[in-house]
Amino acid sequence: MGNWLVVEEKVIRVMEPDGRILEYEAPISAQQVLSNFSGHALSDSLTGFHRLPADAKLLSGQLYYLVPLPTPSKKSKKKVVSKQEVQELLQVSAQDMVSQIQSKQSTNQIQVSGVEDDDNCRGSNSKPISKSF
């Protein structure tokens, strides 16, 4: 009755996170698609994320999903400090505290001695107080 011509579709579709559809000619690998989208992965399922390996050959006629990867949080980074480093930090802190206390004490002594001198000077006509033993 009639002749049918079947044409195999050699188009691969990739849906971006915003819903736009990109079309690529087959054959193409996941890595070739991802080279334009840093921080993303390809999945063949939207309901259950199945990350495709970079060397996976994408099949024509299929729809793939471009999924953004989570960015690592800066808050989660922790620094490991050795016991010796902690002791050195504490020793430096203790030395700083001691030197601050000593400088405050010397400042207070200067102020106190200045106050004592003022108390002993009662006026221009006053004489020093003498004590007899």
UniProtKB/TrEMBL annotation:
Biased composition (Polar residues): 103-112, 122-133
One Pfam assignment: PADRE
Stretches the record annotates as Disordered: 103-133
Source superkingdom: Eukaryota
PANTHER family found in the cross-reference section: EMB|CAB85509.1, PLASTID MOVEMENT IMPAIRED PROTEIN-RELATED
Protein name (record): DUF4228 domain protein
The species this protein was found in: Hibiscus sabdariffa (roselle)
Lineage of origin: Eukaryota, Viridiplantae, Streptophyta, Embryophyta, Tracheophyta
